Amino acid sequence: MININTKHLAALTVVTFTLLLIYSFYYIFNQRGEYLINSKKEKDLQEQFQTKHSLNNSLSLKIRTMQKEIDDINSLYISSQEIESNIKKLFKTISTDYDASLIGLKELCVNRYIIVVQLGSNDQRTIEGFQKIISRIGEFKRSKKDTRIYFIDYLMEGKK
User: Fold this and answer.
1) Buried residues in 6-35 as b, exposed as e (16+ CB within 10 A)
2) 39-63 pLDDT, tens per residue?
3) What is the Cα–Cα distance from 51 to 54, expressed in whole angstroms?
4) What's the pLDDT tens digit per position in 61-120?
5) Looking at residues 14-40, what average pLDDT do you find?
6) Looking at residue 63, what DSSP letter applies?
7) CA–CA gap between residue 2 and residue 15 (Å, rounded)
């Protein structure tokens, strides 16, 4: 049998328990340190989240306010579909004399449009009469490539 001296056994036991105690303290303090570091990071992230959340809410409120203002401004003016139908009605009533047709309508801003119109006739009297009619709509320019096409700068006033 193996014979172990009690002094060596006692010393070995004391060293083992001392090492176990030192490792236990090291483990506890290490875990406590990691917990404190992680709790600090968590607190910082929560503060950042709150800051971003409040910023997001204020921006959302500003966007909703601006959208409401835009909708209010748009409601002051007639829509492009209404303008298009009104111009088609006008050209339908004068079509027998001038043979005019609407080619397109381009919105530049809320109250400004470019209207592209084509005149079917090349007669000078017809052209002069048509120019008088479209000058009442807005300023116009004649196309340089096709003299039968006119560009009308239509600036509308708000609804009353």
Assistant:
1) eeeeeeeeeeeeeeeeeeeeeeeeeeeeee
2) 999 999 999 999 999 999 999 999 9
3) 5
4) 999 999 999 998 888 888 888 888 888 888 777 766 677 888 889 988 888 899 998 887
5) 96
6) H
7) 21
Give the span between the Cα atoms of 100 and 93, in whole angstroms: 10
Greatest Cα pair distance, the chain, in angstroms, is: 135
Burial of 137 (0-12, 13-18, 19+ CB in 10 A): buried
Give CA–CA dist 34/26, Å, rounded: 12
Rounded distance between C-alpha atoms, residue 151 and residue 144, angstroms:
11
Residue 43, amino acid = K
- Which residue in the block uniquely carries the two structure tokens 């339908």? 92
- State residue 101 phi and psi, 5-degree precision: -140, 150
pTM above 0.70, yes or no: no
pLDDT tens digits along 139-149: 999 888 888 88
What pLDDT sits at residue 75?
85
